[in-house]
Amino acid sequence: MTGAMLQITWLPGDDRLRGRCHCGVQAEADEPVAMWEWLLAHPDHPAGGPATPDPAAILPRPPAHFV
Fold first, then answer.
1. Nearest partner of 46 among 58, 66, 29, judged by Cα
2. Per-residue pLDDT, 66
3. In a 3-state reduction of DSSP, which class is residue 18?
4. Burial grade of 64 (CB within 10 A; 0-12, 13-18, 19 or more)
């Protein structure tokens, strides 16, 4: 993959991410790990972007002042 570029950007005013693969395919996701896994799956990207994780499987993050 010489010269290939993968890009993830935050969507303004939202917590969603937009990923763009070097092949030109774009998708949106809520989780950075899911987006990177989707991008790195090239050329086998699932249609429509990364799968949405089960909300029960996502652990809540502590407030920043507790970290």
1. 29
2. 56
3. strand
4. exposed
Strands of the chain, DSSP E: 7-10, 17-20, 26-29
Do the strands 7-10 and 17-20 form a parallel or antiparallel pair, or are they unpaired? antiparallel
Q: How do residues 2-38 score in pLDDT, each as one tens digit? A: 567 888 899 888 888 998 888 888 888 888 888 888 8
Q: What is the pTM of this model?
A: 0.61
Mean per-residue pLDDT for 43-63?
62
**Backbone phi, psi, residue 66, to 5°:** -100, -5
Can the peptide bond before residue 32 be classed as cis, meaning omega within 30 degrees of 0?
Answer: no
